[in-house]
Design goal:
Largest sheet: 6 strands, mixed
Strand order of the largest sheet: 1-2-4-3-5-6
Helix content: 10-25%
Order of helices and strands: EEEHEHEHE
Strand content: 15-25%
Number of helices: 3
Structural class: alpha/beta
Shape: globular
Number of strands: 6
Length: 151
């Protein structure tokens, strides 16, 4: 099972660029962090409950993998149903932000990962991002998977 260490200080998170030209959102926010890489894969990692600002489960994994990554936390334990500050005010807007990031990064494969409350987020946002939700004329032919486990 991957290590899911929470890092709760912005000083402990490795330094990366803070913006990309024409990016859908900033790269760094108290509730999410985007790690763009030259890869056709995008993994979105959802933290579990009771996660403070600038604290992300799965950060170690996101930093190790050979894929672009987004780590998010829901902060007030709303189970990812009422939006994520900085990405959107409701689930639809957040999913739209993830879709925009996937297009911006030219991702061909999308993975959503979370455990417990984070697993709920992985499915709530991952299912609408699945290939069936894209028009047949879409440029991207995505593969998609989600992981969820409960403690």
């Amino acid at each position: 099972m991957p290590e899911r260490r929470r890092i709760s200080s912005p000083d402990l998170i490795p330094s990366f660029e803070t913006s990309l030209p024409d990016s859908p959102t900033p790269l760094d926010h108290p509730r999410f962090r985007v790690f763009p890489r030259k890869s056709e894969k995008l993994a979105i990692f959802f933290s579990g409950s009771n996660t403070a600002d600038h604290s992300f489960e799965w950060l170690d994994t996101a930093l190790r993998i050979d894929a672009s990554a987004i780590v998010v936390s829901n902060g007030p334990n709303q189970w990812y149903q009422a939006g994520i500050d900085g990405l959107g005010g409701d689930r639809t807007e957040v999913t739209r932000s993830f879709r925009q990031w996937a297009k911006h990064l030219d991702a061909q494969s999308l993975y959503t990962v979370g455990a417990a409350m984070g697993g709920t987020g992985a499915f709530l946002h991952g299912v609408p991002l699945a290939p069936a939700s894209w028009p047949s004329r879409a440029r991207h032919r995505w593969t998609w998977s989600a992981a969820m486990c409960s403690g």
